[in-house]
């Protein structure tokens, strides 16, 4: 039998989930208004243990430098770079906010979470080579992609990525692009460092081992948040003026518990992942890049094949994958009942229609689940022809929940991006979806703050603080080449990265 205690003191803000999104929003709100009280609930015993953990994501600072799925080819053969421009600009905002934190707070926990790792795209076959050539031409017309190199020369590409070219057929048609300004980010380390800063501020409390059971909207617009202490079963209620649901794959069930009209029709499709992790130091030492290829037809963006140099806790790592899988869990530490429990009357039709329109994805996932070690090795050898099985071990990656939502024309659509659901009165918001998520956290939270705190956001005081945290706030970097150079030089210096000038950009 659970015991019930008296309610905790009223708090201004409740953050559900101790991941990169909650950390970003919490710090941002405290910078905007230091008097705000913030309470954070996390079901695990440590921050950033799910989607934000270094081993559960690619660690790519998503800038659209190498991610080919951000630049689709139109029916007329031209390349649509609109999403790439948007993501590149959003990542610049993230770097500016992180630079602001490192400049203002001399705390080692938020240092060395980011490193320059060249971002490269690699394709095989004449059709894909032509796509990459057109993509390069379209992107380099923007200052955000200045300095990107393109090559079809196997010798030059071998210099960029020797492991990828060793043993490759010299007659194979290949091409690659290279952007030296690419980054590797340990989002787990960054998130924990941000929570360290947040907990140092007055009026902030962080509760681990606490799971949110219920959300109730009070008549006065506030929220009653019921939590259970998973260590002793004690239940507590907290009254909050604003609630943010940033619980990764766990956000959808919590959003459904809010019963806000805006949540109607949303569903989720879980996709799990696995990596091949290199265990041979000699092989790891020979690769210094994030090399992205093209996704298989019908596969989700999180399954785009990539050979990743990572720096995790100061140690260089090498991963290949991810290999997609299927689990009914919404979190890596979740329950197999997560998917069936999320199905409600309002989202049954969108989920069925989205499923019928994505049969190729279902087929792809079935194939992935049935893969043998030899199948995974064969996929690796498409990118590393001389890969040896004994140099690699299988590691479990994170769990993602792709968004399914209503669509008037199609009944339901499967979204592969990030979606923010906000109540009409702005008192509650939830973040759903996956990539590019963490990399664009600052931009997403800037937008959320302005939607949920409109009156305060319009004041000169908050506008000035927005610009202090993100100096290019209100600007469109793609339209201001000089500002691109200025901000990249500044953030590279403050984050202790190589400057664009040193990279020859």
Observed structural traits:
16 helices; 32% helix; globular; (S)-2-hydroxyglutarate dehydrogenase activity; EC 1.1.5.4
Molecular structure report:
The protein is an alpha+beta fold and 505 residues long. It has a domain at 266-419. 32% of the residues lie in helices and 25% in strands. Helix 1 links the parallel strand 1 and strand 2 (38-41). Helix 1 crosses helix 13 and helix 2 packs across helix 16 (481-494). The longest helix is centred in the first third of the chain and has 23 residues, at 82-104. It starts with 10 loop residues before the first strand and ends in an 11-residue tail after the last helix.
Secondary structure elements and pairings:
Elements: E1 11-16, H1 20-32, E2 38-41, H2 82-104, E3 114-116, E4 119-124, H3 126-139, E5 149-151, H4 154-160, H5 162-165, E6 174-179, E7 183-185, H6 187-199, E8 204-207, E9 210-217, E10 223-229, E11 235-245, H7 251-258, E12 267-278, H8 281-285, E13 290-292, E14 306-312, E15 315-325, H9 338-342, H10 348-356, H11 359-369, H12 373-383, E16 392-407, E17 411-415, E18 418-422, E19 428-433, H13 441-452, H14 454-457, H15 460-469, H16 481-494
Parallel strand pairs: 1-2, 1-11, 2-8, 4-13, 11-19
Antiparallel strand pairs: 3-7, 4-6, 5-6, 9-10, 10-11, 12-15, 12-16, 13-14, 14-15, 16-17, 18-19
Helix pairs in contact: 1-6, 1-13, 2-13, 2-16
């Amino acid at each position: 039998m659970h015991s019930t205690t008296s309610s905790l003191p009223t708090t201004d803000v409740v953050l559900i989930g101790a991941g990169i999104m909650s950390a970003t929003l919490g710090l941002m709100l405290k910078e905007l208004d230091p008097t705000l009280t913030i309470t954070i609930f996390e079901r695990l015993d440590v921050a950033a243990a799910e989607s934000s953990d270094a081993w559960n994501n690619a660690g790519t600072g998503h800038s659209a430098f190498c991610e080919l799925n951000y630049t689709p080819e139109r029916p007329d053969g031209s390349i649509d770079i609109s999403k790439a421009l948007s993501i590149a600009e959003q990542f610049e905002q993230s770097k500016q906010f992180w630079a602001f934190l490192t400049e203002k707070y001399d705390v080692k926990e938020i240092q060395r979470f980011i490193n320059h790792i060249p971002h490269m795209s690699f394709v095989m076959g004449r059709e894909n080579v032509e796509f990459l050539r057109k993509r390069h031409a379209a992107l380099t017309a923007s200052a955000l992609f200045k300095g990107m190199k393109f090559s079809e020369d196997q010798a030059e590409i071998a210099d960029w990525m020797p492991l990828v070219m060793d043993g490759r057929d010299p007659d194979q048609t290949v091409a690659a692009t290279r952007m030296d300004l690419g980054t590797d980010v340990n989002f787990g380390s960054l998130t924990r460092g941000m929570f360290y800063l947040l907990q140092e501020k007055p009026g902030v409390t962080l509760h681990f081992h606490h799971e949110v059971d219920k959300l109730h909207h009070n008549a006065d617009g506030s929220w009653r948040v019921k939590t259970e202490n998973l260590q002793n079963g004690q239940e507590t209620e907290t009254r909050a003026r604003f609630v943010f649901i940033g619980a990764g794959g766990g956000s959808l069930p919590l959003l459904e518990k809010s019963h806000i009209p805006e949540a109607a029709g949303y569903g989720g499709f879980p996709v799990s992942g696995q990596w091949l992790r290199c265990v041979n130091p000699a092989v790891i030492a020979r690769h210094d890049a994030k090399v992205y290829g093209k996704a298989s037809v019908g596969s989700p963006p999180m399954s785009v094949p990539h050979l990743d140099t990572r720096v995790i806790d100061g140690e260089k790592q090498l991963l290949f994958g991810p290999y997609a899988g299927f689990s009914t869990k919404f979190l890596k530490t979740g329950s197999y009942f997560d998917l069936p429990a999320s199905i409600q009357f309002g989202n049954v039709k969108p989920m069925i229609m989205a499923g019928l329109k994505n049969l190729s994805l279902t087929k792809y996932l079935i194939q992935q689940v049935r893969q043998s070690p030899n199948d995974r090795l064969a996929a690796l050898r498409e990118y590393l022809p001389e890969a040896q099985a004994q140099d690699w071990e299988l590691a479990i990656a994170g769990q993602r929940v792709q968004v399914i939502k209503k669509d008037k024309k199609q009944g339901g659509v499967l979204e592969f991006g990030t979606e923010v659901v906000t109540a009409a009165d702005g008192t509650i918001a939830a973040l759903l979806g996956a990539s590019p998520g963490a990399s664009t956290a600052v931009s997403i939270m800037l937008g959320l703050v302005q939607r949920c705190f409109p009156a305060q956001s319009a004041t000169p005081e908050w506008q000035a603080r927005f610009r202090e945290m993100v100096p290019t706030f209100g600007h469109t970097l793609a339209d201001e080449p000089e500002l691109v150079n200025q901000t990249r030089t500044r953030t590279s210096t403050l984050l202790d990265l190589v400057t664009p000038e040193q990279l020859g950009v």
